[in-house]
Design brief:
single chain, 367 residues, alpha+beta, Acetylcholine Binding Protein, Chain: A, Methane Monooxygenase Hydroxylase, Chain G, domain 1, 6-stranded mixed β-sheet, 5-stranded antiparallel β-sheet, 7 helices, elongated
Length: 367
C-alpha cells in the first residue's frame, strides 16, 4: 500500500483561507480581492512537498579499540593459536551494550573473561576481555626463517532499525608483548577497517551487493631462527661431514673398506632420523620446506661419498693405491664445496617474506 499523503500549507495560506470562509458570504465585494490574495500567496510561497518524506535514521558514532595482552599456544600442526585481548567501545547512552553483536569469524572458541560497563557523560563505555582460539594458515616453506601476519578480525552489527559509524581508537590500541614463548618476536601492530562486498544481496531485492565493514587488528610474528636452525640441522650436517671424512680411509684392505661403507650407511640413517624429527616439529604438510630441501642435499652428498668409496676400491683392485688416495681427496673437497654452495642457493631461493593474508578469505565465515 502507498504511504498516506497530507497536504502541507504555510501559515499565510491558512490565514487567507480562513478570511475567505468567514467573510466571503457576507462581503460579496471582498471575494475577488481575497481570491487574488490567496492565489498570490500560493504563487510566492516556497514550494513544499505534498508527501511526507520518510524519516531518516540518524547515524550514531561508536569508538572501538583493541589491546592484545598475550599470544600463546601457537600450534602449527593444528593450525591455530590462542590470543588474550581487550576490546572496548564507547557509544550512545541508550545502547545498553555496543559490543553485544560482535562476531569473530575465525574463532574456534570465544570466551568472555570479564566485562565492565560505565556511563561517561552522554556515552556508555563498555570494556570486555576475551580469550579466543583462532584458526590460522601457517606458511612454513621458509621454516625456521618464516614470518607470519596474524589478524584478529571481528565485526559489530548495528541493532535493528539503527545505524552507526565506527571510529577506531588507534591511540590507545596496541599490543603488550614483544616476544612470544617459542622463539617469536612481535612487531608492526595495526588497527584498521576493511570493507568487503559479498557477491549477493542475501535475497533482499531492495539492495544490491551489501558491503560489510570489518575491524582488523594485525601484527607480525617472526622467529629467532639461527639457534633453531642449527639445532635442527646440526645432526644432518655432521653426518655429511663424517661421510666425506670417511673417504680418507684407505680402501686397499677389505676390512677397512667394509668399515668405511658401514660408517657411511650409519651417516645416511642418522640424516633420515634427523629429518623425521624436524617433520614432527613442523607437522603434516604436502610441500617441501627449507629443511626438507637441505636434507635432500645431505642425502645426495652421502650418496656421492658412497660412489667415491666404490671408485676408490676399484683403483686399489687395479693396483693404483696412490692414485686412489689423490683422487679421493680431490673429489671429496669438490663435493664439500658444491654442497655448501648448494645450501646457500636453496636458502636464497626458498627464504622470502610471506605474502600478506587474504582478508577477504579470513572474514568469510567457516574458512
Amino acid at each position: 500500500m502507498s504511504p498516506c499523503r497530507r497536504l502541507t500549507v504555510s501559515p499565510l495560506e491558512l490565514l487567507y483561507s480562513h478570511c475567505y470562509l468567514l467573510f466571503g458570504h457576507s462581503l460579496v465585494k471582498l471575494k475577488p480581492a481575497l481570491t487574488l490574495l490567496f492565489l498570490l500567496g500560493l504563487l510566492f510561497c516556497p514550494p513544499r512537498s505534498f508527501a511526507e518524506e520518510p524519516a531518516q535514521t540518524p547515524e550514531e558514532s561508536i569508538r572501538i579499540g583493541v589491546f592484545i595482552v598475550s599470544t600463546f599456544s601457537v600450534d602449527q600442526g593444528k593450525g591455530s593459536y590462542t590470543v588474550l585481548f581487550y576490546i572496548w567501545g564507547t557509544g550512545p547512552l541508550d545502547d545498553p551494550d555496543p559490543l553485544s553483536s560482535i562476531q569473530f569469524p575465525r574463532a574456534v572458541t570465544s570466551t568472555v573473561l570479564a566485562e565492565n560497563h560505565e556511563i561517561r557523560g552522554n556515552n556508555r563505555w563498555v570494556l570486555k576481555a576475551y580469550r579466543c582460539e583462532m584458526l590460522n594458515e601457517w606458511d612454513l616453506h621458509s621454516y625456521p626463517f618464516d614470518e607470519h601476519t596474524l589478524s584478529l578480525v571481528f565485526r559489530i552489527s548495528p541493532p535493528e532499525g539503527r545505524n552507526f559509524t565506527i571510529d577506531l581508537d588507534t591511540a590507545d590500541s596496541g599490543i603488550a608483548q614483544k616476544r612470544i614463548q617459542g622463539g617469536w618476536q612481535v612487531a608492526d601492530f595495526q588497527l584498521f577497517k576493511y570493507r568487503l562486498s559479498y557477491q549477493s544481496n542475501f535475497g533482499d531485492p531492495a539492495y544490491g551487493q551489501r558491503p560489510t565493514d570489518w575491524i582488523v587488528a594485525s601484527f607480525k610474528m617472526t622467529r629467532l631462527p639461527w639457534v633453531l636452525f642449527f639445532r635442527l640441522m646440526s645432526g644432518a650436517y655432521v653426518s655429511v661431514l663424517i661421510a666425506l671424512l670417511g673417504c680418507f680411509l684407505k680402501t686397499e684392505h677389505p676390512p677397512v673398506f667394509s668399515g668405511r661403507i658401514g660408517m657411511q650407511t650409519a651417516c645416511l640413517l642418522a640424516a633420515v632420523v634427523n629429518q623425521r624429527e624436524i617433520g614432527s616439529a613442523i607437522g603434516a604438510r604436502s610441500f617441501y620446506s627449507l629443511p626438507d630441501t637441505l636434507h635432500v642435499l645431505c642425502y645426495l652428498c652421502i650418496l656421492a661419498a658412497f660412489l667415491i668409496s666404490l671408485r676408490s676400491r676399484k683403483f686399489n683392485d687395479d693396483g693404483q693405491a696412490l692414485k686412489s688416495l689423490r683422487w679421493e681427496k680431490r673429489v671429496s673437497g669438490i663435493v664439500l664445496v658444491v654442497f655448501i654452495l648448494a645450501n646457500f642457493a636453496c636458502a636464497w631461493w626458498i627464504i622470502e617474506p610471506n605474502a600478506a593474508p587474504d582478508l577477504a578469505q579470513i572474514v568469510e565465515m567457516g574458512h
